[in-house]
Amino acid sequence: MPRQARYREIAQVLGRSIESGELAPGERLPTEDALAERYGVHRLTARQAMVELRKAGLVETRQGLGSFVRRAPRRIEVSVDPETRRHRPSDIAGMAGVFGGGERVVERAETAHPVAAGHLRLPGGVVHEITTLLRHAERPCVLSRYRLAPELAGLRLDAKAGVLASLEAAGHAYRYAWHAISAEPADLHDQSMLEMQAGEAVLVREGLLTHEGQPLCHVERRCRGDMISFVTRYD
Predict the structure, then answer these.
(1) What is the pLDDT of residue 3?
(2) 235 falls in which pLDDT band (50, 70, 90)?
(3) Residue 162 — left, alpha, or beta (φ > 0 → left; ψ -120 to 50 → alpha)?
(4) To the nearest whole percent, how much of the chain has pLDDT over 70?
(5) Residue 120 gets which letter from DSSP?
(6) Which one of 45, 56, 60, 65 has the lowest number of neighbouring Cβ atoms within 10 Å?
């Protein structure tokens, strides 16, 4: 059997120390130079070991400060009632508490998006897109894009209530027609907006909302996979 690469051996040793609690959440790890000296390897080998730990989700690097053991996140559940095809009022109240700062609008613009326009049955492929960001405990965790017909560009938004509640306040009672969930590596925009590392998992929830049977809003939520989970409740 071929010998395992040295950087992987170092990553496994450090990983066991993290998982056992010997290295506590939030604890700063030695520098690459210190690790290279400790294990008698080149600095690049130590650097690759740290890359492996980041890929495994055990370590996070803060620009200018160093690498730290990741704290176990509070997993936030977002649920949908399959009978009403809506979030339950108790869930909405709970989410308001979790995302205390409300939905921060990042951008509003007319943009070409043929896929969303197709779901909304819009000719021309142009939609009005509202991009928002949710934070929990000062950490960004959900980047949402709401795609509407251009005639809804004047929708008045209540940041504390959120985009969906703002649609309802404007007379557009909504139901989920469908939703799909997938996972993919964080792209450059995810890395910037959600403060993620390259290769970390983004949970993508895409869905279509309708009003009185007609398409209303195409929603795409890109979520930190280490903080968000989606639940469909049947009770």
Answers:
(1) 59
(2) low
(3) left
(4) 94
(5) T
(6) 65
**CA gap 208, 216 in Å, rounded:** 7
Contact 223, 203 (CB under 8 A): yes
The neighbour count for residue 231, using CB atoms within 10 Å, is: 9
Q: Which of 132, 142, 145, 119 is nearest to 210 (CA)?
A: 119
The beta strands (E) that lie in 50-174 are given as: 59-62, 66-69, 76-80, 104-112, 126-136, 139-148
Please tell me the chain's helix, strand, coil percentages from 3-state DSSP, rounded to the nearest 5.
30, 35, 35
Give the Å distances, CA to CA, from 185 to 40, 110, 196, 205, 222.
Answer: 33, 27, 10, 14, 11
Integer Cα distance of 104 and 97 in angstroms? 15
Q: How many CB atoms lie within 10 A of CB 101?
A: 12
Where b means 16+ CB within 10 Å and e means fewer, 69-82 reads: bbeebeebebbbbe
pLDDT given for residue 72 in this prediction: 64
pTM attached to this predicted model? 0.71
Q: Give the distance, in angstroms, between the CA of residue 177 and the centroid of all CA atoms in the same chain.
A: 22
- State the alpha helices, DSSP H only, in 150-187: 163-169
Do the strands 175-185 and 228-232 form a parallel or antiparallel pair, or are they unpaired?
unpaired
The predicted-structure confidence for 129-176, as pLDDT tens digits, reads as follows 999 999 887 889 999 999 999 999 999 988 777 899 899 999 999 999
CA pair distance 59, 12, nearest whole angstrom: 13
